[in-house]
Specification:
By secondary structure, the protein is α+β, with helices and mostly antiparallel strands. It is built from seven helices and eight strands.
Length: 184
C-alpha cells in the first residue's frame, strides 16, 4: 500500500524516503555498502586520522634511520603527533603517478631536503610532479623535510588513500609541515 500512496502524490511533491521507510540500524562490526566504496584511510570523511603505531605497514626501523639521534621511544612520541587525511575524489591524480613522484623523491641524495620556498599565499611548494600527480610541502617559509622522508610517507599513504586507482590527501607531520598529494 505504501507504494500506491507514493504514486498518488502530486507531480511536484517532495517526500523524504527515510521518513517513509526508516533505515535499519547496522549490526555491530558490519560495513555499510556506501562505506565500502571510500578509500581505506578515510575513517572520517571530514576529519584527520591519527597515525596507528601498531600498523604493520608502518616500518618503524626505516623511520628510525631518518632520526638516528632519537631513541625509539622518543621516535614513537614524535610519530603520535602525525595525522593524515585522505581527500581522494574523481579529480585526484592516478595512484601510479603519485608512486612515480615518490620514486623521484626516493632517488634524491640522502642529504637533500625538500623546503618550503613560498613565503606567502599558500605557503606550499611543489616538490615534484609526474603525469597527473604532484607532491608538495606546506608550512612556514624555509621549513623542510628530508626528501627521502617525504618519499617514505608517500609510499605509506598510497594504500591508505587509494580509491579506484586514484589517490589524494595530506600528511600533517605535527611540527608545522604538511605533505600534500594533489593533481598536477
Amino acid at each position: 500500500m505504501r507504494f500506491l500512496s507514493i504514486l498518488a502524490l502530486p507531480l511536484f511533491a517532495t517526500i523524504s524516503i527515510s521518513a517513509i521507510i526508516p533505515e535499519p540500524e547496522p549490526e555491530p562490526g558490519s560495513v555499510d555498502i556506501a562505506e565500502a566504496d571510500v578509500p581505506t584511510g578515510l575513517s572520517d570523511p571530514t576529519g584527520w586520522t591519527r597515525l596507528d603505531l601498531t600498523d604493520p605497514e608502518l616500518d618503524l626501523d626505516a623511520l628510525k634511520a631518518f632520526h638516528p639521534e632519537v631513541n625509539m621511544e622518543n621516535l614513537r612520541d614524535n610519530l603520535r603527533a602525525i595525522t593524515y587525511k585522505c581527500e581522494t575524489t574523481t579529480g585526484s591524480p592516478l595512484a601510479n603517478d603519485v608512486a612515480k613522484c615518490g620514486a623521484d623523491l626516493e632517488s634524491r641524495p640522502a642529504t637533500q631536503y625538500c623546503t618550503v620556498n613560498n613565503p606567502s599565499g599558500s605557503h606550499c611548494t611543489k616538490l615534484t610532479s609526474r603525469g597527473t600527480a604532484a607532491i608538495g610541502i606546506c608550512g612556514k617559509y624555509l621549513e623542510f623535510l628530508n626528501c627521502r622522508y617525504v618519499a617514505f610517507w608517500t609510499a605509506y599513504m598510497i594504500p591508505k588513500c587509494r580509491w579506484k586507482n586514484l589517490m589524494g590527501g595530506l600528511v600533517d607531520m605535527g611540527t608545522g609541515e604538511k605533505i600534500i598529494f594533489y593533481h598536477s
